[in-house]
From TrEMBL:
Fe/B12 periplasmic-binding domain ranges (all copies): 60-344
Keyword Signal: yes
Species whose genome carries this gene: Streptomyces triculaminicus
Family note: Belongs to the bacterial solute-binding protein 8 family.
Signal peptide start-end: 1-22
The protein's name: ABC transporter substrate-binding protein
Ribonucleoprotein found in the keyword field: no
Amino acid sequence: MRHPARLGIALTIALATVGCSAAVGDRTEEDDSPAARASAKAASVTSCGRRLSFAEPPHRAVALDQTSTETLLALGLEDRMAGTANLKTKIPAQYAAAYAKVPVIAPKIATGEQLRSATPDFVVAGSSDLYTKDRAGTREELAALKVPTFVSAVDCPQQNQAVTSPFEQLFSDYENLGKVFGAEQRAGKLVADQRAAVAKAGENASKVPQGDDRPTVVYLYSVFNGMPYVAGKSGLPSEMSRIVGAKNAFDDIDEDWPEVSWEEVAKRDPDFIVIGDLSERGRPGDSAAEKRATMTEHPVISKLPAVHDNKILEVPGIELDPSVRSVHALELLAKGMKDLGYVR
């Protein structure tokens, strides 16, 4: 960040201006409804070890990544957003109209200057690594400017050890953000809908062989320089596997997406393979078709029954990382398990 002192002064002045004008000119008709006025109260939540306090709901929130952007859009908060950044794939159709209303402050990872130009009164991120000196600025720097910063509970499991499921961590995000914005009812509905989807995906888990007979699955996220990146123990796919009654074949590696060898994949000999389609990201080896071709052309992997017999499922790659979209990938996994014959 260049000229931090001057930027800080500018941001402080801008935020003061925003605080005055937002109460009069930036409110929508919904904001001025009796229900909205009743919910426009002080709120306090804890995010990744920091207590955040709000005298009133934010009016100029900035989301630093796609996950946070889509969460705010799912909560119907586009009119309270002053910016988004770091979009990796297309916004889903159901959020497209709302997303079009929000300024894009940076096509990739936002810098401190880009963030400050949006004069935010609240910043939301899916991961804490977006808050660094060479990115948006540290949480401490932004706190000194009276800008609260939120990090998804998924990135800080150590702060809430009682909530171990990535889905429940996401649900806690929705509830906390709903409280901050005075949108508790919308947040509650989103949580209820997604919790029901998780329960439905797990309905047939008891019909799948149990114990050591559980079907094993390899989640192939990407292929970089010819090497596969698969889901490890700490990523969302392990929880998805548990819900549907399967077992992640690389559950013994305590990483989200470790790089392994094709020989190690062959050694695990999974019953089926889930491919994350990252076509929209556009890097070599990202598309599902390229990953299929790599496996069918590999002298060892091509002989695996899962590949030879086409026991392969495709899901959007972005949905294999925790987000408001992840229940969709879980639904595809549950349906695929049934279609492949693993449900009795």
